[in-house]
Design a protein that fits this description.
The chain is mostly helical. Helix content is 64%, strand content 9%.
Length: 104
């Protein structure tokens, strides 16, 4: 399944179940809680870690849909942009961006 299809299926499920489809600030708040749950599952080595990451994705997909964004297109665009950026390590060994891609 691609990101676009998953976004549509997740949105259709929200519509079918009568879940929030309009309150973006609420959705961001719930996303924050889901990230916390995913972190806890990872930290405690819970078997539901993958499910918690899926919840994070589904909240992101809902926020994208609520704002008329195709998350698949946005992810593809960002991966390309990141690939073309240049980095060098600073005096502490931390990668620091030294070249930005031109806007397309």
């Amino acid at each position: 399944m691609d990101i676009r299809s998953a976004q549509k299926l997740a949105w259709d499920n929200k519509l079918d179940k009568g879940f929030n489809t309009a309150d973006v600030p609420l959705k961001f708040g719930l996303l924050t809680a889901e990230i916390g749950e995913a972190f806890t599952a990872w930290r405690k080595r819970h078997s539901n870690f993958g499910e918690e990451l899926a919840d994070v994705f589904l909240y992101l997909a809902a926020i994208a849909e609520m704002n008329g964004l195709d998350l698949q297109t946005e992810v593809q665009r960002k991966i390309t942009k990141n690939r073309e950026r240049g980095y060098a390590r600073n005096e502490h060994g931390v990668p620091v961006r030294v070249a930005e891609t031109p806007e397309t």
